[in-house]
Each structure stands twice: as C-alpha cells, then as structure tokens.
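A common beginner's mistake is to predict each chain separately and then try to dock the pieces by hand. The better habit, illustrated here, is to supply every component at once so that their relative placement is modeled jointly.
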Amino acid sequence: MNILLTGAAGQLGNELQPLLSARGSVTATDRITPARPMPGWVEMDICDAGRLENLLNRLQPELIVNAAAFTAVDQAETASETAFEVNAALPERLAFWAKRNDANLIHYSTDYIFDGDATRPYRETDEPNPQNVYGASKLAGERAIETSGCRYATLRTSWVYSSHGKNFVLSMLELARRGLSLNVVDDQRGCPTWARNLALASDGVIENWQQTKTRDIGGIYHYCDDQTLSWYDFAHAVFRHAVNAGLLDKEPDLSPIPSSEFPQPAVRPKWSVLDTQRIGEVFKISPASFNQSLQAVIGEIAARA
Ligand SMILES: NC(=O)c1ccc[n+]([C@@H]2O[C@H](COP(=O)([O-])OP(=O)(O)OC[C@H]3O[C@@H](n4cnc5c(N)ncnc54)[C@H](OP(=O)(O)O)[C@@H]3O)[C@@H](O)[C@H]2O)c1
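With all components supplied together, the output reads:
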C-alpha cells in the first residue's frame, strides 16, 4: 500500500511514521526535514496546491494520513487566513483527490470545535459551535471532507502532548527548570492525549479497514486518553512524574487560577471532554491510561536529558 503522511515532523506525525511504515510504503512530508528523516522524505509547503497535486499524482497513495495542521491556537486569531488554508483548504484538496482516485483519508480534528458548555462528554453527533478561529478552521476542514464524498475517518482529539514538539508537558518542565512559581488554569477541563496513543488508534482504524475490506466504516470518531483533568491537575501530574523520574529535584510551587486571571487571545472551552464510545464500538479501540502514558513520556524526556 502506498501511503502519504503529511505533517510528519509534528507530534502526531512523528509517532505515525513507524506504525505506517509497517503497513506500507510511506512518503512523509513536512515543511522541514528533521535530523534523521525517513527514506523518501519530501520537504514542502503542503499548502502549495500545484506541488501537492503533482505529489499525489506521482505517488498514487491508497491511503492519505493528514497530520499537518496549524495548531497555534492563539496565533490563529490574527493569522486566520493561514489557519484556514492549512486546516480547511488542505483537507478539502486531499479529500477531493481521494474521492477522484478511490483512496482512503485519515484526518484529525479537535475538541475546540465545541463551545464547552456541555455537562457530559461530547458525542460525535453533538452540534459544533467553535469559539475561536482555530476551532472554526478545523470545523471547516471536517465539513469539506464530509462534502467530498471520499472514504474517510476524522479522529477528533484533545490536549495532545508527546516528548517531542511544542506542548504543555515540555512547557511546564521548562518553566519548572527555571525555578519559577507557577499559576495554572483550573477551570478548563479536558483529556490530555499522548500523540502515540492517537497514532495507535489511527493504526487500529487502518488495520480494521485492511481486514474487513469494507473500508466504509467512515465518519467522525472521538479518541482521547482516559482521564479528565484541569490544566492545573495536568501540571501537577507532570511534576509528580518528573520528580519520580529524577528530571526535577522537587515539585515547583503551583497555584490554581481561573481563566479570567490568564487572558489569552483565543477563547478556550471550559469543558473539552470527548465521549469515546463510538470508536470503541466500531473499531474496538479503548482510551489508553493517562497515567501510564504520561509516565512513559516523562521517561523518554528523562532518557534524553
Ligand atoms: N496539539 C494539540 O493539543 C491538539 C489538540 C486537538 C487536536 N489536535 C489535532 O491533532 C492533529 C495533530 O496535531 P499535532 O499536535 O501533531 O500538531 P503539530 O505538532 O503542530 O504538527 C503539525 C505539523 O504540520 C506542519 N505544517 C503546518 N503547516 C504546514 C505547511 N503549510 N506545510 C507543511 N507542513 C505544515 C507543522 O509544521 P510547523 O510546526 O513548521 O508549522 C507541523 O510539523 C492536528 O490535526 C491538530 O489539529 C491537536
């Protein structure tokens, strides 16, 4: 199977590379080439529509995995054109190519398409109502894929972290290393998700498509790891594991604050919890343990330190 992986240098793309390589011949692409790229790496601006079309026509992938995204939530407020180009126009182009060429598409979206006013975990059928530009651009991408009529699975996820890239875990560790006292928001709740677990969930969908040959169990699915936390709880867990792993001598002073004391350009939903029942029923994929995942990520960071 020929596979095109976009956003291959990002948190998720990096975790997808070995899994996809075990399933077929992967061409990985991103804006930059990492220090140790996989064979056949293509460095390009994935929003260059002409180059993308040429690449797709040359490779003829049977599977496209789109991990490229504009994920800088605050920057998106002032760079909305770029956010919509990457998060909406790109998936639309991929989806229409997939439709014309009988390929499958795996795409990713976000809890931030919801407004956060729910009182139970969000289901795939709940009405989106994004409160920021990033969420609106991701929702536009989802809708473009649906409209294309291609075979697809869009996995919505939340609060992604890994030992690599830009994320909350690495930011918290950096602040703690500087010996700062930290105030962390305690009134936004969500489910932190290790990029590797999202990659494994994607691989589970692909395996199911390969085994059943129906490949028609498409649509939108929610995947996140198994615990609901506030950012403050998450920070606490990061520091506890970091002390255990010998990355920090002691936990920093940490205080909970309301979002109102930490103004950010983009409004965040207060409740970002996704219901993962559907992916369990259809693909037998269950949420992974948050605690084990965070411990593993901190272990990877400690091993590099
Ligand atoms: N991160 C989260 O907390 C989170 C939460 C919910 C959902 N998601 C979704 O999960 C998916 C994976 O997220 P992630 O955290 O792995 O994102 P990420 O680490 O930001 O990776 C995205 C990759 O796409 C690349 N990219 C962006 N624009 C590009 C362009 N024009 N040309 C080529 N490459 C480009 C980025 O490069 P640059 O870094 O150079 O731009 C980056 O390497 C995304 O669909 C995201 O929306 C993420």
